[in-house]
Amino acid sequence: MSKLKFVLILLFAFAVSCSKKEDKSPSYHKGDMTILTDDSFKSVTEALADGYMINYPDTKIKVVSKKEDLGFLDLLHDKARIVVMSKELSAEEVKAYEEQADLKFLPAKFAADAVVFVVPKNSTRTSITMEEIAQGMQSESKNFIFDGANSSNLNFVAQKLNKLPKDLKYSIIPGSANVIKELGKYPDKIGVVGLNTISRPYDNESENLRELIKILPVDNKGKLYAPDFEGLREMKYPFTRVLYFLTNEGNFNIASGFIRYSCTQLGQIIVQKEGLQPYNIYRREVQMR
Fold it and tell me: Residue 71, class by beta-carbon neighbours within 10 Å (0-12 exposed, 13-18 middle, 19+ buried)?
């Protein structure tokens, strides 16, 4: 074998080796990823995923609906790389996350959303009090309809009432959109859904759902609060919640890139167009308790 041919073979082998190493290296701008999100805030998650894929065409992001508690468990068991959350984790859950992911618990907050109480459009009810909610969630009549057990909406209401979900009494119609569509069959009941289910301003499905119901302002100590931008931005609406990302990714790969994108101005503009309150654009005004 000639020296020239030998050198060319070595160079070719070196190039292939380098190429393989590059393929294995972390990358935020190419690759596939699945995001697990509760159905209640799937809309804003899909909008952010679409924005990221437009900016980075070599990425493919799939958004999959999964109840909040189950999505968190998948993250702990390394069955998912990133989840969207809203509930405040207990000390035990934070510890489990830090041990399993080998990362500090640093939730990437990106939006203020809300749990809203809705009635059919023709209902005579115009508001609801905190006392009615607390008492109703202990009543055998089960007048509040949620989208399912283990859902973010149920978890959040339970936390606000300082109760465990298992200690509450409620009805179920699977799926937030289905709660709204079927609520007219139960005129004496109140639907409990995530604001993001109906918040997208110019989306046909959201518009159709909004036509079926009206959102009840919540009376808290004699004052009415609505889940509008002001109510969310200043955290005055009692059932305002903060959406955040959790990942078990320890390097700057696609999950970390997506989180950074969602929390910067481009992502926050998408959040606002979804009808939710951006967390970072108005950070000085948003008081998260």
Answer: buried
Q: In the structure encoding, which two tokens stand for residue 283, read together?
A: 């950070």
- In a domain? residue 42: yes
Residue 81 lies in a domain: yes
Helix (H, G, I), strand (E, B) or coil at 222: coil
Which residue in 33, 110, 130 sits closest to 278, CA to CA? 110
Q: Which residues contact 158 (CB under 8 A, 6 or more apart)?
A: 164, 165, 167, 168
CATH code of the domain in which 32 resides:
3.40.190.10
Tell me: the pLDDT tens digits for 48-99? 999 999 999 999 999 999 999 999 999 999 999 999 999 999 999 999 999 9
Q: Which domain holds residue 206?
A: 112-233
What pLDDT is stored for residue 22 in this prediction? 39
The radius of gyration of the chain's CA atoms, rounded to the nearest angstrom, is 23
The reported pTM is 0.85
| DSSP annotation of 117 | E
Quote the tokens at residue 56. 């980075």
> For the chain, what is the domain count?
2
